[in-house]
Amino acid sequence: MMEQEQKDLLLKLAREARDHSYSPYSHYSVGAALLTKDGRIYQGCNIENASFTPTICAERTAFFKAIFDGVRDYSAIAVIGSGDLPAYPCGVCRQVMAEFCDGDFVIITSNRDGSEVVTETLDQMLPHRFGPKDLA
Ligand code: THU
Q1: Annotated catalytic residue: which of 59, 99, 116, 120?
Q2: 59 with 46: CB under 8 angstroms?
Q3: pTM of structure
């Protein structure tokens, strides 16, 4: 599916990105590293807000940075939270993935100390999804 070396690099960059998190309300920091098909890596962190709803997840921060740069083809994302359990992407982030990624897009999630790593595809995480094909 993916080389271990590349997976390790994405996880390392996601962990680094987590240090940039602004999460004074949940105290749950998340970092992400998004690999583009042309080999670039975009990092993201969660950014919270006192009004709560403007909060953005680490995954979407990474995607939106890449999209702004005009890079729209992605192969994988690593996500690391600060809890005991791996940080699975929320439903909103999965829907953003559905907009821009194929079903074989790889999602790697891990927990605070990296002791657990789970690798799945978008097809596994969001089956039967609504997406661009439905409005074509
Ligand atoms: N969060 C992420 O950044 N990514 C996820 O996959 C799950 C949740 C953030 C949003 C919010 O800042 C905090 O984690 C608690 O929900």
Answers
A1: 59
A2: no
A3: 0.97
